[in-house]
Every structure is written in structure tokens, then in C-alpha cells.
């Protein structure tokens, strides 16, 4: 969006029309991407490894930064989703906006974000960035988006990976291997996987250890659009590889 500050006039207004939803969501993702290393390196940030505590920290930090640099949005932690589920972070408009004939109030997210540790905190949850291990445990990040348990009303979402061990390249290869395993052997949760759902367009910014890629997924169920595009942002949390 040019400068660091995204002015309200560019993407705001109570009766705003003509805003492209996809472009607006991508501008939010780019904002998050720029702020991630600043959050990680903040000297006031308490050291944490817990996913839940990292999510709370990040949500607070992004919300504070948005007040100055992206004032038409705010960030919320633990946004309710389908049933009793909640997505880790949501982004909502500060005031009503209209995008492609869809109205979003201050209570309706324009973007939802799921966050995962890499690696997961226990061996039995190893593949949780992608999927749970059995139909009774639907705890996978991508899996929940595919099933419409997260982001049912959206066709674009984001995931953040906190890299606490190994390299981003390692996780890029590993995550794709888990997806390809599911193509051959689904777990019976209703997800149908294909080879073109692997992560692609891997980019790395070595200077601040920020990495990005994207993926596109088919979805099941009558609550969701046919496809969802996920933008993945990964940050190395300064833990020894």
C-alpha cells in the first residue's frame, strides 16, 4: 500500500462501496506481515512458548499498531465460529463498510486467522497445522477451514506459524508431505484432499526471519463456499534450530 500508514480514506467509510474484498484482506495480511518481526523483537514482550499466550500477545500488539497504521480495523482474540469453536484472531472493521455488496459491521470479521506452533507441543498432535489424526479430533488448522468450522463465510483466510524449532524450509516440506499423505489416505473426517492443495509460492525474508506461502483448498458442507485460499505467514521465534 505504499507507505507504512494506511489512511482511512483509502479503505473506509460508513457507506463505502467499490472496495474489493480480496484486495482489502490482502492489505491486512501485508500489514500483519510487516508487524510480526516488530512484535517478536519487542523488548517489552514477555518470553512465551505457549500457543495460547502467543496468540493473546500478538492480537493485543496488532490491535495497538492498527490504531495508528491501519485505523479502520481492529483485532480481536478468540472469535466465535461454528458451534462452540473459536478462531484464534479475527480482524473487524472499526465502522460499517460495504465490500462487493456485502456489509460488514464492527461485529463481523473481514478476516479470520488461525495460529499454530511449529512443531506442535506433543507428538500425537504433530500434524495439527494441517489435520487431526482421527475423525473425533478435528483440531487441524487447514482441516477446520476445509470443513467450514472456521471461516465458513470467507473465501480467504490466514494462518500464522510460530516456528520454534527447525527451519521454515523444513516446515514447508513437512506440511506438504502431510497434505500428500492425506490425498492417499484420508482420515474419514469428510475432507477430500488433492495434490494441488499443497503450499506454494514460498517466500522468505532472511533479514527478519519472516516467511510466507499460500494454498487453495476445496471445502465440504453446505455452510461454505466451494474454495478457500489460505495465506500462510511464518515467523522464526529465535529458538535454536
Verbal overview:
Helix 1 crosses helix 2. The two termini are 34 Å apart. It is built from four helices and nine strands; from the N terminus they run H-H-E-E-E-E-E-H-E-H-E-E-E. It has helices at residues 21-40, 51-69, 141-146, 168-184; strands spanning 73-80, 86-93, 97-99, 102-104, 111-118, 156-163, 200-205, 210-218, 227-236. It has one domain. The strands form two sheets. A seven-stranded mixed beta sheet has the order 1-2-5-6-9-8-7, sandwiched between helices. A two-stranded antiparallel ribbon has the order 3-4.
Which features does this protein show?
seven-stranded mixed sheet, two-stranded antiparallel sheet, 26% helix, 4 helices, 241 residues, alpha+beta
Question: What does this entry show, briefly?
Answer:
With 241 residues, the protein is α+β, with helices and mostly antiparallel strands. The protein is built from four helices and nine strands, in the order H-H-E-E-E-E-E-H-E-H-E-E-E. Strand 5 (111-118), helix 3 (141-146) and strand 6 (156-163) form a beta-alpha-beta unit.
How are the SSEs ordered, and which strands pair?
Layout: H1 21-40, H2 51-69, E1 73-80, E2 86-93, E3 97-99, E4 102-104, E5 111-118, H3 141-146, E6 156-163, H4 168-184, E7 200-205, E8 210-218, E9 227-236
Parallel strand pairs: 5-6, 6-9
Antiparallel strand pairs: 1-2, 2-5, 3-4, 7-8, 8-9
Helix pairs in contact: 1-2
Amino acid at each position: 500500500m505504499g507507505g507504512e500508514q494506511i489512511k482511512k480514506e483509502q479503505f473506509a467509510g460508513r457507506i463505502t462501496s467499490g472496495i474489493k474484498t480480496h484486495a482489502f484482506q490482502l492489505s491486512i495480511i501485508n500489514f500483519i506481515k510487516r508487524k510480526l518481526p516488530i512484535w517478536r523483537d519487542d523488548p517489552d514482550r514477555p518470553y512465551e512458548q505457549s500457543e495460547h499466550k502467543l496468540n493473546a500477545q500478538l492480537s493485543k500488539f496488532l490491535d495497538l499498531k492498527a490504531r495508528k497504521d491501519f485505523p479502520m480495523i481492529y483485532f480481536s482474540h478468540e472469535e466465535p465460529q461454528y458451534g462452540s469453536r473459536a478462531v484464534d484472531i479475527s480482524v473487524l472493521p472499526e465502522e460499517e463498510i460495504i465490500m462487493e455488496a456485502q456489509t460488514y459491521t464492527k461485529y463481523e470479521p473481514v478476516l479470520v486467522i488461525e495460529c499454530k506452533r511449529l512443531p506442535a507441543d506433543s507428538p500425537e498432535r504433530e500434524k495439527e497445522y494441517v489435520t487431526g489424526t482421527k475423525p473425533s479430533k478435528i483440531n487441524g488448522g487447514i482441516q477446520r477451514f476445509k470443513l467450514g468450522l472456521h471461516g465458513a463465510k470467507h473465501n480467504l483466510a490466514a494462518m500464522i506459524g510460530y516456528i520454534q524449532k527447525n527451519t521454515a524450509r523444513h516446515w514447508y516440506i513437512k506440511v506438504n508431505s502431510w497434505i500428500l499423505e492425506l490425498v492417499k489416505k484420508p482420515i474419514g473426517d469428510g475432507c477430500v484432499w488433492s495434490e494441488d492443495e499443497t503450499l506454494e509460492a514460498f517466500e522468505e525474508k532472511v533479514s527478519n526471519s519472516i516467511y510466507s506461502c499460500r494454498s487453495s483448498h476445496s471445502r465440504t458442507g453446505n455452510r461454505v463456499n466451494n474454495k478457500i485460499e489460505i495465506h500462510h505467514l511464518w515467523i522464526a521465534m529465535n529458538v535454536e534450530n
